[in-house]
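re: ur question from yesterday

yeah so i grabbed the chain u mentioned. its 204 aa long if i counted rite. heres the sequnce exactly as i have it in my notes:
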Amino acid sequence: MPLIALTGGIASGKSTIARRLAEHGAVVVDADQLVREVQQPGSPVLRAIATEFGDRMLRTDGSLDRAALGAAVFGNDEAVSRLNRIVHPAVRAESARRFEEAFARDPDAVVVYDVPLLVEARAEDPWQLIVVAHAPADVRRRRLVELRGMTGSEADARIASQVDDAARLALADVVIDTTGTIDDTLSQVDELWRTLPARVAARA
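ran it thru and got these structure tokens back, copy pasting raw so excuse formatting
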């Protein structure tokens, strides 16, 4: 019952890897999706955010105004820390529940936690394997501009707000190089899947 962490910087191809692992049969738990779920209207997390950062963080329908929250915390390390103290424990608890649920359904399941903030928040968790999607910052910057419509300065700011590549690579048991074609990336994921039992055993 391997529990695998999948991480990578913004625009590193992490989602492509997660989708391919799901096609092979892995149960993928998406940390970003969990964040959205624990911030649903009426949730304790959303109430705490409004208390901490003001009711202007809420839309008229009671949902989170993500743009307002982003503007309130982006580039402000102290504000980000305050937000993380609210959100991270709830996400940690919900992710643990999802992992347990997946293994209860199938004790032999391969569970993959797709988690951008592994280095920042979950590095010490008991993963059986850590997989890092990697492309150099200049490649990721180009993807953000060309594929997501960001300006160069917006892309630079997003990349700079995350830990550097060296910190992620230092944790990696497996690195998937996503600088090539999609097919190149997928073939690496297929090889990872084929060799997964041996890799997990070797790490243990």
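noticed a couple things. The longest strand covers residues 3-8. also The chain has two domains: 1-26+110-198, 34-107.
anyway ttyl
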